[in-house]
Amino acid sequence: MTGRAVRAVRLGPKSIAALALTSATGVAAFAWPLLADRTSGLAHSQDAPWLFAALLPLLLAVAVATVSETGLDAKAVAMLGVLAAAGAALRPLGAGTAGLEPMFFLMVLSGRVLGPGFGFVLGAVSMFAGALLTGGVGPWMPFQMLTMGWVSMGAGLLPGPGTLRGRRELLLLAVYGAVSALLYGLVMNLQGWPYIAGLGSGISFVPGDPLGENLARYAAYVLATSLGWDVPRALLTVVLTLTLGGTVLRALRRATRRAAFDASPAFRTAPGQQEDVQEGSDSVPAPLPESR
């Protein structure tokens, strides 16, 4: 008996609109200091609570849109909760240790199986739960939620979700995991870099300066401070994906197949039985042929 193929949950128009609105909000939250003038009060401690308050209903909108367009039910939400708990449990294992964060590979693999919509919600919720476990609640938390959501969403958007399997898929996910781990650090640096005082003149943010000059300073800042954390994170993601990825993918797809997220209910009557006429229905069952 052959197993039914499992495909990542596809995006519909409502899911795309919800993800686009959420991502646009995140991009604006990260980028606005680069466009602020010298007199602006730059402090994410002021805008982070507003971003967090806006992020929660947006995440709910993504989940609701995905459920309404694909027919996912409580089983999918339960699986989402289990994976979010697993991701949160992995986060303390590498927190504060040279950038080693094993939760990245699980977010990438889960996003691949569950699809971009649920992957985005999974990444954000996992980061939120992980922050509660590690005591990492602060102005940076909503930005971490957004960035990890983008990591998992991108994995769900990779090509060949229903056809690519085996070593080729693992290589694809390993490359994506390495790139996304590096980009995670690159994007998250934008959350704190404009507000760090005492840096050298070549890497400090200067409010009101042309965007190109500040971006050049930002690149120097990343090279000088961030790569020591980002590169080990990328390498660990590659190693875990290539060694454990096949087993984890099979387990996730087996759980998804058994949950039958994409199954359509079908009702059949036993041979030789007539369907009961529903009460209040105008239809009348056809008469049986007379025996001769």
UniProtKB/TrEMBL annotation:
This is ECF transporter S component. Residues 265-292 are annotated as: Disordered. The keyword Nucleotidyltransferase does not apply. The chain crosses the membrane at residues 16-36, 48-68, 113-134, 140-158, 170-187, 234-252. InterPro entries: ECF_substrate-spec_UCP037395. It comes from Streptomyces smyrnaeus. Gene3D superfamilies: 1.10.1760.20. Keywords: Membrane, Transmembrane, Transmembrane helix. The keyword Membrane applies. Signal peptide: none annotated.
